[in-house]
Amino acid sequence: GAGSNEVHNDASKPKRVMVIGGDGYCGWATALHLSNKNYKVAIVDNLVRRLFDHQLGIDSLTPIASIHSRVRRWKSLTGKTIELYIGDICDFEFLAETFKSFEPDAVVHFGEQRSAPYSMIDRSRAVFTQQNNVIGTLNVLFAIKEFSKECHLVKLGTMGEYGTPNIDIEEGYITITHNGRTDTLPYPKQASSFYHLSKVHDSHNIAFTCKAWGIRATDLNQGVVYGLRTDETEMHEELHNRFDYDGIFGTALNRFCVQAAVGHPLTVYGKGGQTRGYLDIRDTVQCVELAIANPAQPGEFRVFNQFTEQFSVRELAALVTRAGEKLGLKVETASVPNPRVEAEEHYYNAKHTKLVELGLNPHLLSDSLLDSLLNFAIEYKDRVDKKQIMPNVSWRKIGVKPRTIVA
Amino acid sequence: GAGSNEVHNDASKPKRVMVIGGDGYCGWATALHLSNKNYKVAIVDNLVRRLFDHQLGIDSLTPIASIHSRVRRWKSLTGKTIELYIGDICDFEFLAETFKSFEPDAVVHFGEQRSAPYSMIDRSRAVFTQQNNVIGTLNVLFAIKEFSKECHLVKLGTMGEYGTPNIDIEEGYITITHNGRTDTLPYPKQASSFYHLSKVHDSHNIAFTCKAWGIRATDLNQGVVYGLRTDETEMHEELHNRFDYDGIFGTALNRFCVQAAVGHPLTVYGKGGQTRGYLDIRDTVQCVELAIANPAQPGEFRVFNQFTEQFSVRELAALVTRAGEKLGLKVETASVPNPRVEAEEHYYNAKHTKLVELGLNPHLLSDSLLDSLLNFAIEYKDRVDKKQIMPNVSWRKIGVKPRTIVA
Ligand SMILES: NC(=O)c1ccc[n+]([C@@H]2O[C@H](COP(=O)([O-])OP(=O)(O)OC[C@H]3O[C@@H](n4cnc5c(N)ncnc54)[C@H](O)[C@@H]3O)[C@@H](O)[C@H]2O)c1
Ligand SMILES: NC(=O)c1ccc[n+]([C@@H]2O[C@H](COP(=O)([O-])OP(=O)(O)OC[C@H]3O[C@@H](n4cnc5c(N)ncnc54)[C@H](O)[C@@H]3O)[C@@H](O)[C@H]2O)c1
Predict the structure, then answer these.
(1) Is the pLDDT of residue A274 over 70?
(2) B341-345 long-range contacts, Cβ below 8 Å, gap at least 24?
(3) What global pTM score does this model have?
C-alpha cells in the first residue's frame, strides 16, 4: 500500500503492531510485511497450530522453520527485530504481560482455530474452537480497554459469517426499511460450521465493546486466501510460509493446485456451485496494512469485506484444469459427496469496495498466477501425502466421542 | 394452557421433560407446573445460582428451601416425582448420563448465568458467563443429536438480543428486499451486555444445528419476568419461589415493588425511557408448556417473542407509585446515573403474536396485580437488605481485576 506507507512514514515514532497468530499462514506473511515496512512488530502465538498438525498427522507442503529460527533469520537478513511472545491468549495473565511489555498501537488478531472441518471433527473440537476463539477475543478486548485504550483492533473475520443469502451482501451493515421506518443494522449472519459461528460471536462481542467502551475496531471479513509467496517470505527458505493442502486445513484453490500437480482428481464437493470470495495472500498483507494505516475512530466498529474476486468451486476447477493443461498436466475433476451442509447452487453477490477505496491494488487470479501457484505445487510434489487429500470430516456425522483421525 | 393440556393428555405415555436450570426462578415454577400437568419432569441444575448469592452477599427476598426439600415436599403433597440430576451441563460426561438415564422428549433449557450486571462485574465474570452459557448450550445440542434425536429443545433466549432498533422487532426473522431481491433472514441482533451477547451466540449455534442436524428447536425470546406466585409454588412454603430484588439479579418491576415497600425511592436509570417487553411468571410457565405441547418440526428453528406488554421504566415507576399510594405508601422516584450503556429514549415496537396464536391467555399488569405483588413485598419487607438495592456494576468501569462486591 503506497498511500498507507506514507501515512506511516510521516509519523515520528514507528507504530507498534502486535500480530496475534503470527506463526500461522496469514499471520507470518503479515508480520514480515509490516516489519519490512518499518512497523515495530511483535508476534504472539502459542503455536497450537503446529500441535494440530502433529495430532492430525498432516503437514505443510512447504517445510517450515521454527518460529525462533524464523525471527532470527529475519533479524540477520534485515537487521529488524520481531519480538516474540509465546503463549495462549486465553490465558489472561500471559496476555496482560504482553500488552504491558509491548504497548501496541494496533493489534492484528489472527490467533484462532480457523478450520471449519476441524471444528466439525467431534464435540470436543467444536467446543475447543468456540472457547478458544470467543474467549481469546474477549481477552484481547479487555486487554485493550485496560492497557492500551487507544489501540486499534484489526480482527480477522470471515466472509463465511454471512452465509449465502438471496440478497446482495453488504459490508457489515444493511439499511432496512420496514413498515415505514428505516434503520441501519448489523447484516444478518448465517454461519454454517462451529468455526464460522465463532467468528459471528466475535463480531457481536467486538461491536458491543466499541459501543460500550469506545474501542476502535476493524473486522476484516476475509475470503478464502490462496497463494504462498510474498516478497518477504521469498527472501530465504527459513522464512517460507506454510501451505496446507489436506482435507482439514487446506483451502479450495490451494488444494486444487496440489491435486493437479500430483495427478489426483480435483475434489469438487457436490454440484460445485458454491460461490465464495477469494484473495491472494499478497492482498491479505496489503489489506491489513491499509487497515492499520487508516485506523477506525474511537467507538467505531468498521467492517470490510476482504476479498478481490468471486468464484464458484466449479469455476476454480475449470481454471486449474486449463492452467494445468498448459503445463502439460492431465487434470481430472471428481464430484465428491459434500461433507458439508451448504447450498450447492445459490445467488452470491458480495460488496468489497471499502478496501479498494483505501487503496487496495488487487492481485487478480489470472492464468499466469495459476501458473506460478501450480509450478510451485509441482516443485514440491514429492512432499505430497496423498492420504491427506480426501475430506474425512462430515458435518452430519460429527459425534460426541473423541475421534482420532487416521488417514 | 387448556388447549395444550388436551394435546398432552391424549398421548398414551406422558411426555418426559428435562428442565435444565430447574432450581432457578423461572425453572422451578415451570418444573412444578409441568409436573402438575402430568408431564414426567426431571430437574438438571448445578445450583451455581445459590453460590452466586453467597459470593455476592445477596439473598432471595423469600426464604427458599433446598432443592432436595423442594422435590420431597412436592412428592409428599402430590404423589408426583420430580427426578433430580445435580451437575454442570458444561461437564459433558454428566450431561450424557442424564440424557441416557432420563430419555427426554423435550428439554427446557433455563440453565444459564442470566444477569446482565453479573456479566459486567469483571473480566472473569464476563468470560464465565459466555463460557458457561455457550458451552452449556453446545453440550445440550450434542446430547440431543447423540442420545435423543427426536427431542424438542425449548431454549430460553431474551428480548434483549434484539436491542432497540429503530424499526419494528419481528419474531426471529425479517423479510428484507434489497436491490430488487428478497430473502427472509435472521433478525439482526444488537445485544448490550456480555450476558445478552451469550444468548445471541446461543441462537446462532442452535439455528445451525437445526439446519445441519435436523434438531427441532424453539427459542423463546423472553421479556422481563415479574411476579412470584404460581398455583403450584403457593401450595406450601417449602415450594416458594425465589424473588430477587438486588442490583445484580433483581429485574425492573420486582425491584420497584420492593423499593416501594421499604420506602426506598424507585431507582430509574437515566431518563427512564428504556422500553422493554414484560410478562407475569404465570405466563412464563404457560408459554413453555405451549411450546412443549406444540413442538417445532425436525430441522425447524422457531423463534417466539415471549412477553405480553411493553412498558418504559418511567411508566413502570408511575404504575408502582399509583398502586403504592392506594395502599397508603408514599412512593418517590430518583433518577440514578445509568450504569448501563443503552439508549434512554428510543422507538420500540416488538411483535409477540405467535404464542398468543398457540393459545396464550395473558395475565396483564393491572392495578390489582400490582397490588398483590406490592402486598407481597410489604409482607416480606423485614427481610429486605437495603444495601443490596442500589446498582453497583458499571458497564463502562468494568476492569480486568477480580472484584469482590461489598455492599
Ligand atoms: N486462511 C484463510 O483462507 C482464511 C480465510 C478467512 C479468514 N481467515 C482468518 O485469518 C486468521 C488466520 O488464518 P490462518 O489461515 O493464518 O490460520 P493458521 O491456523 O495458519 O494461523 C493461526 C495461528 O493462530 C495461533 N493461535 C490459535 N489459537 C491461539 C491462541 N489461543 N493463542 C495464541 N495463538 C493462537 C495458531 O498457533 C496459528 O499459528 C484466522 O482468524 C482465520 O479465521 C483465514
Ligand atoms: N428472569 C427473567 O426476567 C428472564 C428474562 C428473560 C430471559 N430469562 C432467561 O430465563 C432463564 C432462567 O432465568 P431465571 O431468572 O430463572 O434465572 P436463575 O438464575 O434464577 O436460574 C438459572 C438456573 O440455572 C442454573 N445453572 C446455571 N448454569 C448452569 C450450568 N452450567 N449447569 C447447570 N445449571 C446451571 C442455576 O443454578 C439456576 O438455578 C435464563 O436462561 C434467562 O436468561 C429470564
Answers:
(1) yes
(2) B341/A211, B341/A212, B341/B192, B341/B395, B341/B396, B342/B164, B342/B192, B342/B274, B343/B164, B343/B273, B343/B274, B344/B269, B344/B270, B344/B271, B344/B272, B344/B273, B344/B274, B345/B271, B345/B273
(3) 0.97
